Amino acid sequence: MLADPPPQALVEALGDSNLVIRLIGWVDQRASDFLKVRSEAIRRVKEALDAAGQPARADLPGPAATDRGRGGTAPRAGTIGGSGGRSPR
pTM of the full predicted structure? Predict the structure, then answer.
């Protein structure tokens, strides 16, 4: 994940038994495999939540990932990617 622009973690929703966090970061897909970076980011977030005594349950369904697409098109559910070699997330 690129340092510039800096990654962000945004709380999108609080439920009775869940918390929805949107992680935003940029990946240079010429240098790194996007899906590997995404997987590592998810693993690190889970480890941090577990270490803080707030275990993340993998059996709970989450929202679909989205892709802003090339040229800023509308998000498409279930896909992840980006444009220009740099992808959000």
Answer: 0.56
